[in-house]
Amino acid sequence: MRFSGHDTFACRTTWLYKGIDFLNTRRDSENQLVISKLNGHLPTIDLGVGKNMVNAIKHWLLSFGIIDLEQNDFSEIATLIFAEDDDDNNLDAFIEDKFTLWILHHEICSRGYASIYSYFFKEYFKRKSTRTFSESEFIGALASYVKGEGEKLPSLKSLSSDFRCLIDTYSIKKSKKATLEDNYTTLLTELDLIKRTDFRSGENDTIYELNTQAAENESTTLFATLLLKSFASSKNASISLDDVYLQLGTLLLLNRDTFSKILEGVATDFSSEFSFKQNEGTGIQELQISPKGTWIEFAKKHHY
């Protein structure tokens, strides 16, 4: 498990593009990326941010899967933001499209580089009866989870820093000290997945609440794209509806009934690639995925 690395800075909307552009123009002699170029003082001048923010930009590039460390190059998801040959071909360079935000949300939660995001959306609420939480309540549960997984427990200060960064990533600050830049340029606040309430816990912590309706009215194109991104690693895949829900529905904060209806809509709108079938051995209904291309090709064809 990995915690910290962001130097307390939630990802700003322009940072991913800035980081991509910076690294792309500083490839090595074999045309590979050199992520260490984001170390030292040079990036602070070229990126126009302080040293701690440079460290944060590197962290978010890795957390959102923009860089493939094994290939020393940009990942497929980077092509949504950056087009190397012609800037006019950028699909969403400055991430102004909510569709792109959902894809980035899915990426940071599913790849696990920044461990707190996967735990928060996929594990924390499994056995929790409410959709409200506080910092101390969450940190206690996270610490128990880390120890239960046999991992070395970071300091509680480090876990709290990660928690506050997660909250700032998804929720507009109510503090009078928060600037317009804090409130309107943090990457995933538009998704409205986490709300700050006016209530306080017994420990005087702010009470937060999940918005379980945030994704309900998104297009079937988005859900189809995320299904392909999650499961279409082989030519034909059959996945139980329970697994589909646990891997995708939970990340979108949807209840099972709502998610099932959405899957029905996906199968109706994109019947050549999605259908339902009953497993002959178990009798359990499964989602059959027959992709015609990659998830990003699908997104480019049907959305961008």
Topology:
Layout: H1 15-24, H2 42-47, H3 51-63, E1 67-68, E2 73-74, H4 98-111, H5 115-124, E3 132-133, H6 135-148, H7 156-170, H8 180-184, E4 194-200, E5 206-210, H9 220-231, E6 237-240, H10 241-249, H11 256-269, E7 274-278, E8 285-289, H12 295-302
Antiparallel strand pairs: 1-2, 3-5, 4-5, 6-8, 7-8
Helical fraction equals 40-55%
Biggest sheet descriptor: 3 strands, antiparallel
Number of helices: 12
Distance between the termini: 34 Å
Order of helices and strands: HHHEEHHEHHHEEHEHHEEH
Structural class: mainly alpha
Overall outline: globular
Q: How many structurally independent domains?
A: 2
| Spatial extent as radius of gyration | 20 Å
How is the largest sheet built, in terms of strand order?
A: 3-5-4
Mean pLDDT: 90
| Low-confidence segments | none
What percent of residues are in strands?
5-15%
Number of strands: 8
3D structure, described in words:
- This protein has twelve helices and eight strands.
- It is mostly helical and 304 residues long.
- The chain has two domains: 15-210, no CATH class; 220-302, Arc Repressor Mutant, subunit A.
- The strands form three sheets. A three-stranded antiparallel β-sheet has the order 3-5-4. A three-stranded antiparallel β-sheet has the order 6-8-7. A two-stranded antiparallel ribbon has the order 1-2.
- A hairpin with a 4-residue loop joins strand 1 (67-68) and strand 2 (73-74).
- Helix 1 crosses helix 3, helix 4 (98-111) runs parallel beside helix 9 and helix 9 (220-231) crosses helix 11 (256-269).
- The model has no long low-confidence stretch (mean pLDDT 90).
